[in-house]
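Incident log, structure service

09:12 report received: a user says their structure output differs between two submissions of the same chain.
09:20 pulled the input from the user's history:
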Amino acid sequence: MLDKKIMSDLIAIVLHGGADFVEVYSEYTKNDVISYSNKKIETVADSVTSGVGIRAFVGTNTYFACTTDLTEGGLRECAQRVAQAVGSKIDRISDFYLTERINPNIHPIKTLPSDVPASVRAELLRSGCAKAYAYNDKIVQVSGNLTSQDKQFIVANSEGLYTDDRQVRTRIAISAVASNGTENQSGSASPGRSMGIELFDLISPESVGEEAARQAMVNLSAVPCPAGKMAVAIENGFGGVIFHEACGHSLEATSVGIGMSQMAGKLGQQIANPKVTAIDDGTIPNAWGSCNIDDEGNPMMRRVLIKDGVLNSYMIDRLGSRRMNMAHTASGRRQDYGYEPTSRMTNTFIDNGPDKNEDIIASIDNGIYAAAMGGGSVNPFTGAFNFAVREGYIIRNGKICEPVRGASLIGTGSDILQKIDMVGQNLETAQGMCGSSSGSVPTDVGQPLIRVSDITVGGQA
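09:34 re-ran on a clean worker, output below:
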């Protein structure tokens, strides 16, 4: 971790190269992973990520280099590489002074994972996996991992900023496979928070294992899903992945700022049903995607992206701010020092709406209830998406009936926003890792139960 003097020197080197903005990011991160398979703890491992990234702007052109050589000579060489890439050497730069800013910590940690013996953490994971096996004798395979991350970084820039943050996250993930002798089906659960080991005061490992096994057993008894256009009710929690992927990425300056988004130029326009209000909020205490500051050093914010169906805000990082001539929204995030930050989501969700959950189900004569969503793919430019339903059921005459498997939801973000015509009142979020040009970062997705009036369902029946 670097002090003000060396960071100031590195910034000056790049400014002399002709940059109009310079940023230095110094990071030290400790990662711990405990894994379980074959009915035993398989690995207990830790790793350290440590390095410095230096970024420069000239207008909207960016220049970046990083290094793991933290000697003064290695750091200066890295800064000189960036200065040479800028290639407009100037004799004198304007004076700048780094002033430290201390940020309030809205995500307090009670027990650091590193303060708890690995044997104790391993037992938490083992007990959760054992519960999955005990759920039913058809559960034939269980795997899991318990991960924790302790990330510390300092960011300084040529505007005089010098600030730091510490981000601690803990997550448990368990997967189960059920078999009837001729076929296998799986289930999973993976809660996490910006917390230490106190996560398990809120969520027991046993409940995670039981949920993974329950879902596997449901899928084992499921029948092939019918295909066609129909109404779909999408449950809360990870159901929000559809908004995150199909719409959220289209609201990031990474794509909006270069005109490669379906949502570019639509601020103030009605882009969704008036029942839809969508929010990206990195200030929720101890939420998985929360931070005190973003990776550009800006205090985290709550951003109302869509208000009553009207596009209200984009998610904008520092480079996006230059490209779009709009204020940043503290949305600059990166996986680690080896990536330039870009605009990214934090905790993104559709807010509670006016409809009762029971009315949503009762309103569907023939459709699908997506109790849990899985992964998928999306094109941010067109908004076209395809998502798997991890746990689904037929809705018949307003009632949830037999489970189905092999379902997928196919559509476009702009279309689905208009067709969300009922929004329930049981908002809940779930945890994931979001990949983009600045690497993989923790994000929450969420929503209450919603109804999509008409969507293409892919199925096997």
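09:41 both user submissions now match this output. Likely a transient worker issue. Closing.
09:42 reviewer note: The longest strand covers residues 40-58. The two ends are 58 Å apart (CA to CA).
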